[in-house]
User: Fold these one by one.
Assistant:
Number 1:
Amino acid sequence: MYSKLKKLSPLTLLFFIPLIPHFNVVEGFIHTDDLPILFFGIFILFNIKKLDLGFKQPVRIVILFIFIIYLLIQNQLVGNTFFNSEILRYLFYGILFIFVISTDINTFHEDIPFFLFLIVSYFSIQAYLLSYNFGTDLYNNWNIGLNLSDIDYIKGRTNGFQAGGPNSFADLITVTAIYSMFKKKDSWLPWIVFPSVLACFFTYSRFSLIVLLIFIIYKILLVEHKTINFVFLILALLVCSQFGLIERFSSDDNSGIEDRVEMQSGTINFIYEDSVKNNLIGRGVNSYIVKGEILYDADEFNENNVSYGPHNSYLFILLNYGLIGLLPYILIIIDLLYKWIKHVDKHKNIFKEFSPHFYVLVAFLLLSFSSDLLQNHSVSWFFYLSYFLFTKETENKESHEK
């Protein structure tokens, strides 16, 4: 065990990000959930000579750093500043990509997302059943633990340590569960299905649960022992039904669906009516607040603006970074589609199981239609890491087959 711990990849540090609440370390500059990234950067500085910096996959590196340069230029054009925290985050992703393609990722690291899944799923279940409440983080928006509800059939919504509230917590549970069910042996599947459904449901995030169930059913159809896995799935849903599953999907008591429709339709109308220039280069990061169907200038908005986005990552990107800023994500989608088509063509089977990273990426892209997930970096770092690992994995396989 000790020898395995010594061989742990520094990427393991990143999995602590969603387990650390957001508080100030150096006010306005460094926060507690930045510390794993800071330690990761220190490790790279001390080990840079050991990295194989042959600049593999130069096209992707160039695209990523062109995007960073674009953000710098955009800041000058629309924000009258040169630097902001968003640029630092994408600079970190650039360094992360170079690290991933320059080092060997050992197999022990590959179980770390599974361990994260166990932590967040069982925390959600216990927080709901035992009414944990650890107060709020710096955003002062959602309790860590159970957030009591005034809706009759809901005791409350669970939230984890990450930023973003219950919906982001549900997304985190979903993507780590999906990774786990496609990474672990099939014998693990019932023990992933049952807690993941309960944990996700107790956040009362409808769309996350729908995405999770789609992947669970797909995975069950791929395994040999389907009956036992469907039994565990049905048992989990029966338990959820005792806590308001049917009522949650048959009503919109807290106007969650209506709010999302208003936010997204309002953002679409705003973009449609705005100038070609603004839609091309964007309006700058966090320059507008979306509340209902109305978009406010962020400088004139006096309320807590933490949760006021369009609840759609693609609209968020269009609003902030424009069509140019959306282009890298379009290229990622095209790349995933191309690799999946190659995979299907090679095996002549549309249901042939693919890389766990692929399914995580698809889940992120689906979840982003109903949340600002790609902009919540306390969770979205896993999207970028998964894409980098998937890219390295697929290209290594292709090189071995030549």
Number 2:
Amino acid sequence: MIELIELKKEELMKNRGYTATLSAGYHMLADNFKAIFRHIWAYALVFALVMGAWTVFETNFENPEDLEMTAMMGVKLLVAVIAVIVVAIAFSARATMLLNEQSMRWNVGRVTKLLGFSILLSIILSLVVLALVFLTVGAESAATAAVAAEGAEIEAMQPNAATGLVQMFFVVGVVIILALIFYLPFLYTVPKYLVETESKLFPTLFGKYGRGLRHWGYIFVCMLLLSLCIGVCSIILMLPMYVVQMVQRLNQVGMLGGDESGLPSWFGWLNFGVSTVTYFVYSFISLIELFVCYYIYGSIETRHREKQLITTE
């Protein structure tokens, strides 16, 4: 049985400007916060608990030997990664139910396919970056530059290391810009795949990619403005968590140098509690990004239909 949620929201199929798109996404969350909270809080809590445990797992240890990649550490890491992926899929599927009014099971299937696609795309992009770095900089210079980037002094480098470092950063910077251009149209095709229940994965993501690319500037400005707003809120929200983690890592540096831990035994629980509360609150803030992309899709779709009407007349 599908759990239907009655939400107050602006008309989807409407041609909007940048600020109107952001405003529609914000009001979809603000005007329906109680209903959305009841719908998603349990999933947000589980997500926050798992992310809090992940934070403790990656920052907490009692002696330097705990950092060694043993078989048991590998198993723990694998279990932790799987847990994070599962709860992320569940939370995302629960959130997308607000857009398409389909069942949780149906949305889990769609979100899982999108996650697999994004992982595959990220792997391909990483391989492209590595290939370009080695082709333009050279294997020896890239290796030396990588060591230098980890903290070696410029004066201690080989003669071509500094140049290799600059070239490597330049290539990576260019690839990041190209990746930004490449990824932004998916912010139209992904919501389209989630909202239009009869759509197929690859025909939608790539078949309609050109339509998103033609509105790249609109998507870019919307996401830039959204990132500035979300970024400020995120910095304020996550500052306590970052402070706790910084203290934890500074303690680790001392332990690696042979010192005893200077933190109380309950500090790990403090880290877990602060991280859990932070991720729980952030999970609701992140919904604005989903809703803004939802209205980006509606605006681009409306512009396309209006253009078709003009050309047919």
Number 3:
Amino acid sequence: MTYRYITAGISIINDIGYADHSFAKGRLGGCAVFAYDGIAFFTDSVAFVSSGGEDFFDHYGSYFKENGISEKGIYTSLPHTHHTLLRYETDGSWNETSIYGDHYFSEQSENNRTSFEKLKPFLSKDTKGLYLDSGAHEKIFDEIEKIRETSPDIRILWEPPTFSSKDPDMRERMLEDLKKVDYYSLNLDEAAAFFQASDQKEILRSIIELGIPCFLRMGDEGSSWIENGEVFSLQAYDPENAKDVTGCGNCSAAASLYARLEAPSIDQIPLYANIASGFCSRYEGPAPVKKARDTHAFEKMKIYYERS
């Protein structure tokens, strides 16, 4: 089977401590599953590529089955699927630690990374988009040319992890890698750190000056797509009724890639992205995206903006 889209990134099991002191155990998390949701909200022609342990399907099995996801993109290259304690603060910030020890992420980084070989079974001349969750200067950026040779029309959106975008020592590496992709996505905090900007106006100016199309995620404020000096913005989808915003940034970033390639015009990218993440926010953990497609959720949810 060929896929028009691929989402590739880290898979995690989250034990979540919320700012209100409530706690949830064993939630599916990580960029891969929420990015998958962001595109699978619109189409089933999307491959889920990630790494895990032999225990991966003990956690993810029912979700894969319910949403009709192929298991072929899961590489059991880790001793255990990443499992973390994720804690939210009252200001919306968060921190995350592995239950397998402080060094588990770094010790397993090589086994966890996305590579051309992992993507290759899903790449074809028909592949249109790749969502990529990888740290700056990982091996995959030396393999972008191979990806484009296999899929000549592919467009790549990179969502750099926070540890890359907020580290001043990684800035030059990020700038090098950004030249190899077509689009990228940051949230406000990441963008402020990366561009050394003091406010939103300065962030937007810096993005425009860099000249690479960007999807800027602004939490409850919504999102913006910036391309060719133009900024297209839209408020978030009904944030007051969100149940859990974990993963909504990954979801909207991936949805922005889909929208950039499928929406009637680029000014509608935030609409597509905000609706996909709004749907995600209604669920604790990943959303039932097959149900969303089957019930035409996108068309129904657009009414929110038509009434605004």
Number 4:
Amino acid sequence: MTVVSSGIVTSAAFLKVHLWKPTTDIWGVWNNNYFKLAKGVWHEGQFIKGIDWIDWALLLDLPAVSIPACIASLKKRKEVKEKLLTEGK
């Protein structure tokens, strides 16, 4: 159950960090969200434009894959649990 819920929590945290802002400011230029980085930001005297289509694809791929996988594993867990209960184990 912990592994199942961690997929959802990881997806939510990943989206929060990249679409809004990290909780801690330890990432240098990456403390900016994807929207700012797509436009470009100044960091330590350098202009950095650090986001392109592949970054967006990877950002959206994690929740698109992990959340359905979590749901599928919950359904499978329920099936196995019901099967064990009907067998009397």
